Amino acid sequence: MQYLEAFRALARHRTHQIVVTSAGNSGQAWWAVTRDTEATFYLDASMSLSTMFASGLALAQPGLSVWAFMGDGAFCMNPGMLMVERQMNLPNLTHILVSNRAYGATSNAALPNSPQNDYCAIARAMGLERVFACNDIAEIDRAFGALASTNAAGHSFVVIEVEPFSAAEQKLEQPPIEATELKFRFGRTVERRTGCDIFGYRL
Amino acid sequence: MDEPDIARRIADQLAACDVKLVASLPDNWLMDLIRAIDGDDRFRHVPVNREESAIGLCAGAYMGALGSAALMGASGFMTVIYAVTKINYTYEIPLLLLLTLRGAVGDHHKHHISNGLYLLSVMDAIKLPYQIVERADDIGAISRCYRHTRTFSRPMAVLLTRDLLRGAH
Fold first, then answer.
1. Min CA distance, B106 vs chain A (Å)?
2. Which of B49, B57, B64 sits opposite A61 (nearest CB)?
3. DSSP characters over B2-50
4. Contact between A198 and B90 using a beta-carbon 8 Å cutoff
């Protein structure tokens, strides 16, 4: 499955979800297919922390539904995050692992043990129950249809297997928003949707 | 004042500034405090797998308007420099760090010599403000430091000494 094709499918399934992207390719791909400047936090180069960031947000605002993208490169830096996620078990968090079997943000450099890594098995071994494997668009449609139609008891983990970015795709634009502007745009969106006060003053 | 009283007073300080989430990694000096927070209904205590996860968790909580603090040892802090500078500095996201002042006078452990040599220097190098709390009478500084992070829109550390956490012996 092509990376961008998968992200177009994800964008079709998005209704009201707040999104947190990880470094590099997932941020580029999500920006390419959505141009979202309000309800996506492009967490640039966090080296594995996008789902922890999303977990804090999901805990803080249980009425928000949060999707968090993470490449398998970031996942391999900190797989123990799944223990924390399982422990928190937030029903409004969906961890979307985009597996391209490479360090995509760094020119598809080799990922350790990449052919053997079974991310769904790792997740199940840590006690996660709502685990979905998607190898094509039909499986994305099924997984996200199931996610939308049930009141989940705990958080969900979706593994999407994609082809690495091509050389041309590596040149896709990065989200061009300055970090502090992004913080305020995203934060104001969260404030509008929830009524909370993040910054200590409201516009 | 014994150690559980110190722990309770620190927890009260956190609660006073509306901290609801505490993410922690252990350090022997912090165990009374971690136990106090874990058993305190005012907090959601999340033990994390590594210190960087606490940084991510607290940053996300801030973006959802939830007060938080990250509790860890000095060694753990030394592993999170990239996460703090990348997330908290780049996006200007406040964070209160409660750390142990390892390697200072009174620390009997040779394996903390590196922290004694470099912890404060590293904080200075990344311009991370810190305040050392070494006496029970200074515990009130914790809520002031928390509020400073909100004004400063960046992280600040409170360094807790052995004398405060374990008594001077």
1. 34
2. B64
3. -HHHHHHHHHHHHHHTTEEEEEE---GGGHHHHHHHHT-TT-EEEE-SS
4. no
Buried residues in A153-174 as b, exposed as e (16+ CB within 10 A): ebbbbbbbbbbbbeeebbebee
| CA A198 – CA A184 distance, rounded (Å) | 9
Question: Is pLDDT at A25 greater than 90 in this prediction?
Answer: yes
pLDDT for residue B3: 73
Closest listed residue to residue B21, CA positions, set A89, A88, A41:
A88
Question: Cβ atoms within 10 A of the Cβ of B1, count?
Answer: 13
What pLDDT shows up at residue B4? 75
Q: Which of B44, B53, B83 sits opposite A59 (nearest CB)?
A: B44
Closest CB to A53: pick one of B49, B56, B66.
Answer: B56
**Which element (helix H / strand E) includes A182?**
helix A179-194
Q: How far is B133 from chain A (nearest CA, A)?
A: 27
Dihedral sign for Cα atoms in the order A63, A69, A74, A75: positive
Say if the Cβ atoms of A54 and B65 lie within 8 Å: no
CA distance A52 to A49: 5
Dump pLDDT digits (tens) for A98-156: 999 999 988 999 999 999 999 999 999 999 999 999 999 999 999 999 998 776 678 99
- Spatial contact of A175 and A27, defined as CB atoms under 8 Å apart: yes
CB-based contact B93 A59, cutoff 8 Å: no
Domains (ranges, CATH) in chain A? 3-194 (3.40.50.970)
Taking the C-alpha atoms of residue A6 and residue A135, their distance in angstroms, rounded to an integer, is: 9
- What is the per-residue pLDDT across B25-56, written as a single tens digit (0 to 9) for each? 999 999 999 999 999 999 999 999 999 999 99
All domains of chain B in start order, with CATH: 3-166 (3.40.50.970)
Sequence-separated (6 or more) residues with CB below 8 Å from residue A167? none
Does A43 lie at the interface with B, CB-CB under 8 angstroms?
yes
Model pTM?
0.96
ipTM for the complex shown: 0.96
